[in-house]
Amino acid sequence: MERLEGKVALVTGAGRGIGRGIALRLGQDGALVAVHYGNNKTTADEVVEQIKANGGQAFAVQADLRNIAGVHQLVETFTAKLESQTGSSHFDILVNNAGIGTAQKLEETTEQEFDQLFAVNVKAPFFLVQQLLSNLRDGGRIVNVSSGVTRIAMPDIISYNMTKGALNIFNLNLAQLLGPRNITVNAVLPGIIDTDVNAAWLHTPEGQAMAKNMSTLGRVGETADVADIVSFLASDDARWITGDTIDATGGSHL
Ligand code: NAD
Questions:
Q1: Which of 15, 69, 93, 115 could crosslink 43 through cysteines, CB 3.0-4.6 Å?
Q2: Tens of pLDDT along 68-104?
């Protein structure tokens, strides 16, 4: 029996990148996976098909998480589809992965961009948890995809780093709040991972060298490096870990 057999997981931003890796891994672990996506139905459908091809179960759910209406849409669509597939709107694992980055320094950051970063990276997970609390089963799991920038100063992307700092505080407080329900809440802090957001600079010889040198393990992180940690945190093996932030930077800037 796979370790997440009989569990239901919702992974936000799962059409590509780290979220895709997490959805594939949880599907492989036996969970029924809701693959949330923002606007690219094709890639989300591909993730669903890949999970099914591996013998798993999955369905896609669309919602734009830039505003609260999108959060409500996600909750409604997810619970409706879940109920039609399983006869229940209850689930076990929520992975708050969807997020956006920035290329703007302090001097260049506009109010609009600042608000957008906080809307997607902080406000959306906050209200998603709020709206889904009664659907999340006791003994469930919440995993927040934060970032190594909450440990390592990178002032060139200061506004993004602040959103992940807020997510870590959310993580800690939520763990305390949900402990009595035996729900664990943990954050994973990836370093540089080879995904679309980094492709432009990472897929150059200089970018590769910089990223490899940052990790003491001497290579660039892959989505599976993060997904495997999320799989562990979602499993029963991690039942005694809560309120923690797990560094997944491959030992960057130790
Ligand atoms: P990505 O851009 O490939 O994926 C981000 C996902 O979030 C996409 O599926 C996208 O559709 C979704 N998303 C973004 N805005 C959305 C919106 N408004 N509504 C709905 N969905 C939206 O990036 P990634 O590298 O896979 O990042 C995933 C998470 O990991 C993010 O939270 C990111 O901050 C974090 N992270 C990434 C790295 C890295 O180096 N790639 C490092 C540390 C943390």
A1: 15
A2: 999 999 999 999 999 999 999 999 999 999 999 999 9
